[in-house]
Write a structure and sequence with these properties.
This protein is mainly alpha-helical. Helix content is 56%, strand content 7%. It is built from 18 helices and 8 strands. Helix 2 packs antiparallel against helix 3 and helix 14 packs antiparallel against helix 15. The longest helix is centred in the middle third of the chain and has 37 residues. The protein starts with 19 loop residues before the first strand and ends in a 12-residue tail after the last helix.
Length: 488
Amino acid sequence: MTNEFQTLKPTPLFTAGSAVRLEHDLLGERGVPVDAYFGIQTLRALENFQITGITLNHFPNLVKALAMVKKAAASANSQLGYLQPQLAEVIGRACDEIIAGELHDHFLVDMIQGGAGTSTNMNANEVIANRALELLGHGKGEYQQVHPNNHVNLSQSTNDVYPTSINLAILLSYSDLVHSMEALCREFDKKASEFASVIKMGRTQLQDAVPMTLGQEFAAFAATVREDVDRVKELVVLFKEINMGGTAIGTGINTDPAYRQLVVDALSEISGIDFVCAENLVEATSDMGAFVMFSGVMKRIAVKISKICSDLRLLSSGPRAGLNEINLPPMQPGSSIMPGKVNPVIPEVVNQVAYQVIGNDLTITLAAESGQLQLNVMEPVIAFNLLQSMRLMTQAMHTLANRCVNGITANVEHCRALVENSIGLITAVTPFIGYENATRIAKQALHSGRSVKDLVLEEGLLSEEELNDILLPENMTQPRKVELKARA
């Protein structure tokens, strides 16, 4: 039996009989496609890590972040005299092209990889080196002129480049997440205003509770999402602390004493983000705490959004055998066998996104805990899951806002009828007739099918004028000061 996964090709750049250039590394010599900007170490990673099929270039901000880090390192090394100005300049030009979105199709290593991100770092080193060679008029692979390790990776290790690049990628991406959250809040706010006068039953434990307005329900949706906008903005600050200059384990081996601050300053200027040196580079090289905290907020957002989507599905259930208080915009036919059926497909897909993000958080937690001693080798799966969670939630909230919430309508009369026929009205009357009377009336209403209002009037517990005032929607859906009459 053929395993379909074994037949997958690592990259479309590999074709039978294509021309190659010879490169060598620790393990020997290999042919690399002659037109490829990556080199032998990337080639080995393409062969070793056919795991998810999701490659570095699926996250453009991560690729751009890698280029920014490499440009910053070249600048610092040039200032210190370790890198010739011409080489620093051409490496910087190659990085600028990547930052502008070019050459991303050569960042092909799988996001999940062994080696603590070394393959990602080398993919960047090789692409930058080979583009720099072209800019100097040399052929790809002529590394004696511009070398991936000796020049592009000078004063660096994967162990400071990779986490710094992930931090930067998050900082470059989080604004899209925030914008999608804010846009969703605006749509909920619009519906809260539109539905402000729509009286309906609130429910607890799926049972009738007390009246509220549909506007209050949607305002609560907006509020619960909006408070996490602040959480995201607070936590991304953690990613401004980086371990550049720590190299392998945080001791700064193979760097000039002045390099650490110079590279951080250069990265701040290149990215427009104010980075700071971690106080303890040994600690910062192995610590995954910021990723765990930020993933926790992503999970919190996912849980809240999923709960909202479940509520929307429940409120729109029916249309005739469910709650049917709201109508979601119809997006597509809902069944291949049941004519006329329309499903709540947008909330459903957002629910599924939330489940994925919640699962990603567990993966990040386990990976963060599994790092030993001076390095966490599980960082690739942390990066993959965290960047994926941000992207998924950004897209899901955008979809929810624009393809669901903004088209929701209310079934006003049906909502009111449910309130008027609900035993839950007795709660509003209880302060005026006493708990014992209210309990008895509720029981009678439940068994007889008659309304609470009719039974209260029949027993003369309140006048119709008093009862009408108590049951005004505005009097049942917000606090008010009342004068209670003494009742036997």
